[in-house]
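User: Sequence for AMP-dependent synthetase below. C-alpha cells please.
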Amino acid sequence: RVLRGAAPARAGGDDGAGGEGGAEAQELACILHTSGSTGEPKPVPITWAGLDAFTAFCIDLVGLAPADRVLRVAELVFDLAWFDHLATLRAGATLATMARRDLASGRALRDAVAALAPTVIYGVPSMFMKLVAALPAAGPGAPAGALSPPVRAILFAGEVFPPRELAALAARAPGAALYNLYGPTETNVCTFHRVDRAALDGVSEVPIGVACPYAACALLALDADEEGGRAIEGPGTGELVVSGPTTVGGGPYRTRDRVERKADGLFYFRGRIDRMVKIRGYRVEPGEVEAALAAHPAVRQAAVIAVEDARFGKTLRGFVALAGDADERALRMHLAERLPPYMVPETIVTMDELPRTPTGKIDYRALPG
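Assistant: C-alpha cells for AMP-dependent synthetase:
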C-alpha cells in the first residue's frame, strides 16, 4: 500500500503555527515511552518545537523531495516514526507502507522492499542485517543480490552497527548514502554521521559523528562514584549531555551514555554508564566486550550481561547468534587476544536469535541470567 500526503505548513511560518519560541511550538505533541531494553520503559514528553527541528533537519540531511518514496518501518509509538511519517509528508514525499508482519523475516522484508521500491529507508541495524542475509549470495557467474537501484539513502539508529555488517549492507546498496543517527528517546536524534564507505574495511567502530544543528552536545567527566561535574574540552571520554528543542525540557539532559570525542572531533559511543559493572575489582563496560565479540567473523549478533556466580561472585556471560562456525573455545580465544582476562566472559551462549524489544533493540532483560 502506497500513500501520498501533502507537505504540511512549517511550524513558525505565516500560518500562525508559532515560531520556535512560540507558545504553540512548545506545547506537548505526544508522549513516547523508552524501549525498556535495560530497564522499565518510562514516558517522555515530545513537543511540537522538537518535532519541527528534527523533521526540518532530516529533510535537509538527505534532501527529501516529492519524488522520494520512504519505507514506513516504525509504528507511531516509536521515535523512528517521526522520520517515516512527519519528515516524509512534510517534504511532500510518498510514504510506502508495508504490513507489520513483513518485518518478521528477512525474506518478507526483502520482498516488500522489492515491491515498494523505496528511495529512502530508516531502521535499526538488526533490520538491515536481516535484510542483507535474505538477499541472494554470489554464485558462479552471478553477482550477489543487491537492493533495488532506487534506494539512494539508508539511515540507521537505535543500536551499534558492527562495521563488518555495515560493509555488507554498503556492498548490497552501492548507490545509497549511509547515515548513522544517534540519540536516546529523551533527546531524539542529537548527533549524526555520514559513513565513508571507503573507510569501512578494517575499522572496529563507526562514529556517531557530530552534533545536529539544533543540539548542543557536551561531555562531563565522571569520578569514581559516577557523578558528573567537570566539562571536558577537546578529546576525552565522559557522559554526553544534550540541550536543544528536541530534548526534554530543552535540556541540559544527561544521557547516561559514555561517549568519547576523539582528536578528529567526532563522537564515538562507549556504552551505557548504568551498565558498567565491577569484575574482580575492575570496572567493565559490557558494550566493549560486545564489540569485541561482534568483531569475530562468525558472529552476527552479540550481547553481554553481568551475572552472579556462587563461586566467583559477579561474572560476565556472553550471548551470540552466529553466521558461521565457531565454538565457545574459539570465541573466548578471540576475546583473549583483544581484551584483558577480567573482560573475557566466563561463559558464551549460542542462540539462534537474540531477544529483541518491539523497537528492534536487544532485550537484555530477556537474556537468561
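Residues 1-20 have pLDDT under 50 and may be disordered.
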